[in-house]
Amino acid sequence: MKSDGEKIKKNKGKQKIEIKKIEENRYCQITFSKRKEGIMKKANEIRALCNINIDLIMYSSSGKPYYYGDSSLKTMKIALSNEQQFH
């Protein structure tokens, strides 16, 4: 501890990563899985904070769609279900 009561950081904390394409498919899928949950959480937060309707569709590298949205916005859900029929 410092003399004025401040704590000394023992680690660097959250590090910023370089954004570049992930070449290995396995790592790409793992990253997508983790970040997909994060972006859905952020979509939910902005929906709650700003009282807005939101729809989000993401497609994995294999073409599988993932959907997050308000139940009142049925158009996107219909489009998504139609899209799944073609994959």
UniProtKB/TrEMBL annotation:
SUPFAM superfamilies reported for this sequence: SRF-like
Gene3D superfamilies per record: Transcription factor, MADS-box
Chain ranges of the MADS-box domain: 12-72
GO terms classed as biological process: positive regulation of DNA-templated transcription
Localization per record: Nucleus
UniProt keyword list: DNA-binding, Nucleus, Transcription, Transcription regulation
Pfam families: SRF-TF
A GO molecular-function annotation: protein dimerization activity
PROSITE patterns (UniProt xref): MADS_BOX_2 (PS50066)
GO CC, alphabetical: nucleus
UniProt cross-references to SMART domains, sorted A to Z: MADS (SM00432)
UniProt protein name: MADS-box domain-containing protein
